[in-house]
Structures are given as C-alpha cells and as structure tokens.
Amino acid sequence: MNEPKATFTAPAAQRCCARAFGSAACDLDIAFDVVDRASAVTALLVSCVSDTQGRAIGIDEPWTWTLNQRLQALIAMRLAAGDAIIELQVACSACGEAMALDLDLRTFAGDPAAPRFTWYDDDGTEVSLRLPCADDLRRWRRDGVLAQETLAASLIESVAGQAVGADHHPPAGWLSALDDAFAAHDPLTALQLQTRCPACDHDQPVACDLEAWLLDGFAGTQAKMLEEVLQLASAFHWSEAEILALPRWRRAHYLQQIAARGWA
Ligand SMILES: [Zn+2]
Prior knowledge:
- With 264 residues, the protein is of the alpha+beta class.
- It contains 8 helices and 11 strands.
- The radius of gyration is 22 Å and the shape is globular.
- It holds the Pfam family T4_baseplate.
C-alpha cells in the first residue's frame, strides 16, 4: 500500500512531497520542544519531506526556508494525512462567549510567498526586504535579539538601490509600517482571522499562530501513536518496534478487536 503524500512547492520552485506524520516509526523520535520550536519544525520537515523522486532533503535544508515556505510544507503534511480542518477555540473579547472556528487548510495551501519583495516608504524610497527564514530565528534566539528595530533591520537588503548591512538603523517611523508590509506580503505567518460572535454580534479579529496549531496537531498524533503502542503491547506483548512495523490499517484492526473484546 502506498503511503499518502501531498506535493507542494519548496524553495527554488522545486516540487516536493510531504508524507503524513504518524505513518513511520521514526515519528516517535521527534521532540515537540515548545522552547525551541524552530528545531522541532526542522526535524519534522527533514523526516517527512522528500523530493518527487522520494529522495530525502538535507538535514539543514529547512533552516534556509522562509517561515512561509515551512508553513506550506507543514500544511502539505497535514493534507497528506487527509486531515484538512483545524478547530480553533476562542473567547469573544466583548461577552466572553466561547466560539469554535473551523480553519480549512486547503484554503491556505498554495505557492509560498516570494522570499523577497519591495516596499516604499511615505517619501517613495524603495526598500528591498526579504522574509525571515528559520536561520534568522535561530540567530535571533542565540543572540537574544528582541528589539523590533534590530529584527526589522536584519531583513532590509537595500534602501534606494544601495545595499545595507546588518548595522543599518531604519528610521523609527518605518517600524510599524514595515510590520504591516511583512503581514501584507506574507499573511500566513502572522495570520489574522475575522470572526463575529454569535451571542453579541461583536466583530473580532483573531490572531492565529498557524505553526503552533499545526505543531499541536502533530504532537497529538504522536501521543495517539504512543497510546496505540501501549494498548497493543499490553494485549499481545509485542515490542514497540514490532508494533510500529505494522501498517496502520493492521494496527487499527487489532485495536478494534481489543475494544470489541473488552481487553482494554
Ligand atoms: Zn460576544
């Protein structure tokens, strides 16, 4: 039986395949580290993404991908699992009513945002910007960079046609406009949803950290795998490796039988 896969466009317009997470024994090795999220995403992508010939990507390759490109790859992994809907729980900021929002990942899947783009300030000065890649996150984390000005400056490549270095200080007036420019060019990375409360009709923007929600889903899949191993090992005394070597449909069959016979 062929493993389900979804294709997506990786950097340099190369087509790649993503497999469903939870279909290989090595998926239990991924550490869902909430502190170093970028490393967890990189490990996931290295494990689940291949080129269209089935060749693995390099272990450092996803560090060079923009956050937008990484999101597209994570979405493709989720679509390969046939699981397109993320259910978000939010509370109305006016009346506190709990609301459930269904996000259909198929509406977000597509070509990644261009890694470079041009923005003009109020005076018409042309500014060349690049989207942050995971290597930037790693460097900012290592150097303890938190100042918005420093983050923004490191993503400016040139001003009025002149290349600028990392020591370039953008005018303070640019900072919030730059934030808006990045959000407009790459709406997926800083996703904003608009929702209306069914109880009080209040219109509310909802900031959605799509990467965090996707990671939550993969962590849930891993927890389910571990639970299945535990149930099958308890019932049949098979080893973890033996259980994980079974195709998913056979694991599901034995689990059904355990439930039907009341063994669990
Ligand atoms: Zn409300």
